[in-house]
UniProtKB/TrEMBL annotation, chains A, B:
Taxonomic superkingdom: Bacteria
Domain HTH arsR-type intervals: 16-98
Protein's recorded name: Transcriptional regulator
InterPro entries: ArsR-like_HTH (IPR011991), HTH_ArsR_DNA-bd_dom (IPR001845), WH-like_DNA-bd_sf (IPR036388), WH_DNA-bd_sf (IPR036390)
Matches recorded under SMART domains: HTH_ARSR
Gene Ontology molecular function terms on file: DNA-binding transcription factor activity
Amino acid sequence: MRPLFHPAIEDVRPEAILHALADPSRAAIFATIMRAGCVEACSALAAVGDRVIPKSSLSNHFKVLREAGLIRSERHGVELRNASRWAEVEARFPGLLPGIINAYASDAGACPRDAERAAAR
Amino acid sequence: MRPLFHPAIEDVRPEAILHALADPSRAAIFATIMRAGCVEACSALAAVGDRVIPKSSLSNHFKVLREAGLIRSERHGVELRNASRWAEVEARFPGLLPGIINAYASDAGACPRDAERAAAR
DNA sequence: CCCATAGTTCGGAACTTCGGAACTATGGGA
DNA sequence: TCCCATAGTTCCGAAGTTCCGAACTATGGG
């Protein structure tokens, strides 16, 4: 458990980032870590929207984000603090993260309405 | 087979785009369609780098790109012509596609050297 | 030493992806 | 018209991935 693996920024691959953020829960977790002034415990994110994420799935989501090079996790006492690696990733792949985060943000407005429409059928 | 389904641009979801482009073969296919002046037959893309892609996998890749809203396919005689929906997607999610395409492009330089280094061990 | 809390690992069920073989659709001769 | 060639699609089994509950490990506080 101890040695949390973080890839060096030059080993970060675009496909890993896209794969990590192609899951809306993971994208939401990542967006929260970014917005939250860059440090957040895993358990603070146990829900996305109104959906509860089981601990084991959460643990896996964090692992995927970590191994994609998107976040850095450190043990602080009994909990894990997660910081986004935004600046590093932005330097390596300029425009990638803003594009993705904006896409999800602009979609968030459309999504509830879609859900209503779907429910109305 | 006949009715090729294309989502309306407002139904296109960011996670579908990320998922479609998280596969390097599909990203390469999409980049080629874009660069090639926007129209290309499926079979013109039967290889990515030096790797041959079987017909059935190719067909599936095109389907994923189509259903993600990234390309538009039309039958022209016996073949399918594929055009990228870049402008529409760019209008809906500004910066998303350039960010992704640039990330892959800037990684392409790093990749062969990585391969050499790995081979040298 | 024991307990509580925070995460990780394990393992099986459900889902996805890959690719070969067989199939369908379209157009061009003869 | 019939047959052939070409371009894609569908089917299906093997291999891989994801999800999540249960059991486990690590850390710190009585």
